[in-house]
From TrEMBL:
KW Iron (keyword) present: yes
Keyword Iron-sulfur: yes
Taxonomic lineage from the root: Bacteria, Bacillati, Actinomycetota, Actinomycetes, Mycobacteriales
Start and end residues of each 2Fe-2S ferredoxin-type domain: 4-80
Organism, scientific name: Mycobacterium helveticum
Name of the protein in its database record: (2Fe-2S)-binding protein
Pathway membership, UniProt: Alkaloid degradation; nicotine degradation
Family annotation (SUPFAM superfamilies): 2Fe-2S ferredoxin-like, CO dehydrogenase ISP C-domain like
Keyword field: 2Fe-2S, Iron, Iron-sulfur, Metal-binding, Oxidoreductase
Family matches, as InterPro entries: 2Fe-2S-bd, 2Fe-2S-bd_dom_sf, 2Fe-2S_ferredoxin-like_sf, 2Fe-2S_ferredoxin-type, 2Fe2S_fd_BS, Beta-grasp_dom_sf, Diverse_Oxidoreductases
Length: 170
């Protein structure tokens, strides 16, 4: 079985591995790195549960091969809180505004919202819904999630805090 070398940073930790070219980034993160916070729902780019940050951009890790992340900085939901466990503004707001129920979709929403609020600190309702249009939630509904986005943006503007308190790439 032929394997390709891959070197990348995951949540601030340098990782070198040899992987089959067909291994997805999602499976690499879950199975090789043990980072099972990146969830797999549809596995074909529709649900957003597998969203991670790749060099700061929100991407669906089920649609990428691990070898395509060679040389990149990847942040998963495990890298969003601070090392001592302090939740990021997005995570705190989702909890405060009841933006989750079963939690399956939540890691994907955390990553998408983290990228969205970094790029747009004061989004409108429409901009939030557009920014989250690639993330599906099957049980909570979206009102609490949109409210959480506004709340996180408000907190971040008031405290000048970054979207991520952890190993954010930028
Ligand atoms: S598991 Fe990747 S988009 Fe659904
Ligand atoms: S909280 Fe259950 S699918 Fe979103």
């Amino acid at each position: 079985m032929h394997e390709e070398p891959v070197r990348l940073s995951v949540n601030g930790t340098a990782i070198t591995a040899a992987v089959e070219a067909r291994l997805t980034l999602a499976d690499f993160l879950r199975e090789r790195c043990g980072l099972t916070g990146t969830h797999l729902g549809c596995e074909h780019g529709a649900c957003g549960a597998c969203t991670v940050l790749l060099d700061g951009d929100a991407v669906r890790s089920c649609l990428m091969f691990a070898v395509q992340a060679d040389g990149s900085e990847v942040t998963t939901v495990e890298g969003i809180a601070s090392p001592d466990g302090e939740l990021s503004p997005v995570q705190s707001a989702l909890r405060e505004c009841h933006g989750l129920q079963c939690g399956f979709c939540t890691p994907g929403f955390v990553m998408s919202l983290t990228a969205l609020l970094r790029d747009n600190p004061q989004p409108t309702d429409a901009e939030i819904r557009e920014g989250l249009s690639g993330n599906f939630c099957r049980c909570t509904g979206y009102q609490g999630i949109v409210a959480a986005a506004h709340r996180a943006a408000e907190v971040m503007r008031a405290t000048d805090s970054p979207a991520s308190t952890g190993a954010s790439p930028r």
